[in-house]
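Entry 14. Structure prediction run on the chain below.
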Amino acid sequence: MHNEIPDINRIFEISSGEDFKRLALQIFRYQYRHTEVYRDFVDYLRISPEAVDDFRKIPFMPIEFFKSHKILHKQKTAQKIFRSSGTSGMDSSRHYVADLNLYRKSFLRAFQHFYGNPENYCFLALLPSYLERQDASLVYMLHELIQVSRFSQSGFFLSHEGELARLLQSIQTRKIPCILIGVSFALLDFAEKFPLDLSGITVMETGGMKGRRKEMIKEELHSILKQGFNVPDIHSEYGMTELLSQAYSQGDNIFRSPPWMKILIRDPNDPLQLTTASRQGGINVIDLANIYSCSFIATQDIGRSLPGGAFEVLGRFDHSDIRGCNLLLL
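Output returned:
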């Protein structure tokens, strides 16, 4: 049984906790055999795959490995390499994606899980810093969603903010279901220059100040955007270069994951231990769609688990806080 090749189609058919556990363990053993960097990491921790009988015991590889290693199934080649934007003076992460159709299936299914058929939405993407980079996974995802949309108004906006403002007003008047999605600093700039009444339109931020504006907590960011656009809630997308799946918040910074993705919270002082319920700590992600890379990643984000599988994103570790992660990088 442990030598089975996981059925990719089953990833998107998970319907119970038992389904998730069974497939997570199967993919863990599959990646131990075929993703050499992950196997070296598990061996370094002196953990036997046969002793891992619960997905909570699976070792989570530090996300920093994507900056220094090629994380890819040893018998696969990359169809696309996504790179993180990074910050000045820092190395960027590289995600070698062996199957772009799998990525496309994952983000389309995840969107549909929370919002319904993407064909029925107009997507207006405000990603000025990302559009210059065709190796950004977020640009790839939104390009596909724009292509799927049945509304010709869907598109990217780089610097034509006046045109975007007029288009939003027209869309609102015509009551077209619309999602304005953008990086945080671009939405803030837009809200300051064009304070619009966007009631009835979904405003979604994807994070990303990256030195463009002062960092602020989510509550402050969302408060400014809600006031600037006259909307009751700000939605959020939680994804990253190193993953193939996304979680979504439909308000109040409370995120939920699709059935093939799960968030666990680790102890900030002991990265190999998970925290008890409601305590904050480092966010560990299980992304079963990431089958040809690594599905078990310890991020640098700080969060807290909530009842029913929901979670909050509270911020990021700074360099003085990641001593636990540093232990894993030795």
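Residues 320-330 have pLDDT under 50 and may be disordered.
Filed with the rest of this week's runs.
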